[in-house]
Amino acid sequence: MTANPPEEGFDQAEFEDDELGEVQIETSSGRKRLFSKELRCMMYGFGDDQNPYTESVDLLEDLVVEFITEMTHRAMEIGRTGRVQVEDIVFLVRKNSRKYARVKDLLTMNEELKRARKAFDEVKYVGAEAKIK
C-alpha cells in the first residue's frame, strides 16, 4: 500500500507531542503554548465560559510566562549565581502577604506529600518483605 500524501495546508511542525501526551501549539513567534489547557480550566473555574476565547487564553498565558520569567531572573540575581532556590522566591514575595501566604501553603503541602509518600513506600516495602518470608 502507498502512504497517503500529507494534506494541503497542514504543517506538521506546528504540533508536537510532549512527554505527557498533550499537544503543544506553537505561536507565530515560535514559542510553544504550555499552559493553555490548565488556563482554560482555571478561567472556567473563576467564572469564564467553559470554552473561553483562544485570544484570552493566549493573553493570560503571555502574562503568566512573563511573570515566571521576571521572577526567575530576579531570583537569579539575589541568590547564588545561576541558581534559583526556594529561599530566593520566598525572599522576593515576602512583602506581598497574599503571595507569601500562598507560597508558604504550597511549601507546607509539598512537605506533607513527601512525608505521606515516604510512609506509603515504607508500608509497601514492609508488606512486600513480609510476603517473601
Furnish the topology, listing elements before pairings.
Blueprint: E1 15-17, E2 23-26, E3 32-33, H1 36-45, H2 54-78, H3 86-93, H4 97-132
Antiparallel strand pairs: 1-2, 2-3
Keywords:
mainly alpha; disordered N terminus; 59% helix; 133 residues; Histone, subunit A
Question: How many helix segments?
Answer: 4
CATH topology of the domain at 32-84: Histone, subunit A
User: What is the CATH architecture assignment of the domain at 32-84?
Assistant: Orthogonal Bundle
Could you give the count of β-strands? 3
Structural class: mainly alpha
As a whole number of angstroms, the C-alpha radius of gyration is: 22 Å
**For the record, what is the CATH homologous superfamily label of the domain at 32-84?**
Histone, subunit A
Q: Major sheet: size, sense and barrel closure?
A: 3 strands, antiparallel
Spatial strand arrangement across the major sheet = 1-2-3
Low-confidence stretches: 1-23
Please give the share of residues in helix: 55-70%
Following the backbone from N to C, one meets helices and strands in this order, namely EEEHHHH
Question: What characteristic shape results from the CA principal axes?
Answer: extended
Distance between the termini: 57 Å
Task: Report the portion of residues in β strands.
Answer: 5-15%
GO molecular function, one term: protein heterodimerization activity
Subcellular location: Nucleus
Pfam family, one: TFIID-18kDa
Keywords: Nucleus, Transcription, Transcription regulation
Give an account of the 3D structure.
Belongs to the TAF13 family. It comes from Anopheles culicifacies. The chain is mostly helical. Among the domains are: 53 residues, Histone, subunit A (Orthogonal Bundle); 38 residues. Helix content is 59%, strand content 7%. It has 4 helices and 3 strands, in the order E-E-E-H-H-H-H. It has a 3-stranded antiparallel sheet with strand order 1-2-3, with no helix packed on it. Strand 1 and strand 2 form a beta hairpin. The protein is extended. It starts with 14 loop residues before the first strand and ends with a helix. The N terminus is likely disordered.
